[in-house]
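Appendix B, Record 12. Input sequence as logged:
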Amino acid sequence: MSQRILVALSEYGYWGEELVGPLDVFDARGYRTTFITPTGKRAHALPPSYDPGYLDPPLGRTVTTPDMARRARELDESSRLDQPLSLAGLIPERPYLSALNHLRELEDYHRRLAAVTDDLLAGFDALVIVGGSGPLVDLANNERLHDVILAFAAADRPILAECYGVAALAFARDWESRTSLLWGKHVTGHPKEYDYKDGTGFLGTDFVMGPPPYPLEYILRDATGPHGRFHGNVGKETSVIVDFPFVTARSTPDSTLAGELLAEVLDSGLRRHGW
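Logged structural output:
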């Protein structure tokens, strides 16, 4: 039976190659992919990600080939991403502590969440969180996505996160201890050296900020704790770390390799790679 992949996309813009790269691998292997966004709105690629002339400021060079730019645009303009699933429509929201009937509402939340996550785990073999600046807005601190991540991790289902999408793994935490799922794990992600000093933008808004609102590297160093480690691999062309159940990718050039390594996890039982 072919593997079934749930792919989470930001409604504020994903980076084209970070979706195209893994999809190429999944399609070649006959995997089935389903897309999900925070509210069920169709996701779109960030315009710089399908501009072959766009110069990445930290790297001082273009990062998108003409062929990849074309393919990212074609995917974005196709119907493939239409009608995604909705996190808000599927996953119940944890009630505020101030709710009038908090205990009963909390019980209902846990009951509904268990039913939904059981269905998701029955329907999908792996979760992918695509990167770009958009995830900083609506995926990193999305408690509904955190519940999905926690469910996949508890069931030993692999989770691939790319670039700023790795932030959602860092913030997915045990509710009682507040300990990150990444505690004790080896991960990669957007290092400080790769962060913009200006021009971090988001799709569908006029808001363009300077650097991102937080350095992902610092968050990941804290989240992994004394027995885990963040690997920036600055100066190396690629950086993908497998520390099961997590596959983490640093940035755009790592997208295809990340998809290939997730496939090895699924099909060959790979548990460790990259350190």
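The longest strand covers residues 32-37.
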